[in-house]
Each structure stands twice: as structure tokens, then as C-alpha cells.
Amino acid sequence: QVQLVESGGGLVQAGGSHGLSCTASGNFFSINKMGWYRQNSGWQRELVATITSDLNTTYADTVKDRFAISRDNAKNTMYLRMNSLKPEDTAVYYCHALLTTTSRGPTFSYWGQGTQVTVSS
């Protein structure tokens, strides 16, 4: 059983900074790409940022230059540092990971339960 557990959600003032983390636990062999997604009620889940196992990153245009994704492979943990937050960043933020359970096994997709980030104006 694999679990992704996010932490760090909360209420932040516009212009402020906040951090999220996501830790993978359970039986798996390796974690490939990880990412953060977000979703507002009634809207589709959208990509925020991704990071590969060799630390290559991508960002949505809406968060580029404000957010920073990182990961600690030794701790199976991914982070999202959010700066210059805007009210439109308000959403439930989800952690996602592609991982394998054996050295030659297929890749499986896992999601965290989500954590609410609310940015007040």
C-alpha cells in the first residue's frame, strides 16, 4: 500500500509566502516524476509544477517565477514553496507521484488527499 500525505495547507494573506510538503510511504521501488496540482470547486484540476527524479522541473505559466518545487529523494518528500501569493492561488492542492513497485515493474499513478490553501485579499 502506497500513501501520499500532504501537509502545510492553511490561510495566507495575499503577497505572502507558504510551503507545502508531500511524503510518500509504503511499499515501492522508486519514485519517478512527482507533481503538484490544484483544483477549485467546479473547475478542472490543473497542473502547478512537476519535478523528475533527477530534479528537472516544469511550471504552469500562472505560477512561474513565484512558486518553487523541490524534492528530497532520500526522504521521499516533495515540497512546494509559494511566494507572492494571490487570491486566485486559492485551491485544494494535490500531490501526485508516478512510482514503481519493482525494479522492472510498471509505473503507477498515486494522488494525495489534497490540502486547502486559501489566500485572502
Q: Which structural traits does this protein have?
A:
121 residues; mainly beta; four-stranded antiparallel beta sheet; 0% helix; 59% strand
Which parts are unreliable, with pLDDT below 50 for 5 consecutive residues or more? Answer: none
Helix-strand sequence: EEEEEEEEEEE
Estimate what percentage of residues fall within beta strands: over 45%
The number of distinct β-strands equals: 11
**Structural class, judged by helices and strands?**
mainly beta
Helical stretch tally: 0
- Please give the alpha-carbon distance between the first and last residues: 40 Å
* Fraction of residues in H or I helices: under 10%
Please summarize the sheet with the most strands: 7 strands, mixed
Structural shape = elongated
Mean pLDDT: 96
- Evaluate the radius of gyration: 14 Å
What would you say this structure looks like, in words?
The chain is mainly β. Helices cover 0% and strands 59% of the residues. The protein contains no helices and 11 strands. The strands form 2 sheets. Strands 2, 4, 5, 6, 9, 10 and 11 form a 7-stranded mixed beta sheet that branches. The protein has a 4-stranded antiparallel beta sheet with strand order 1-3-8-7, with no helix packed on it. β5 and β6 (57-59) form a beta hairpin. The radius of gyration is 14 Å and the shape is elongated. The relative contact order is 0.33.
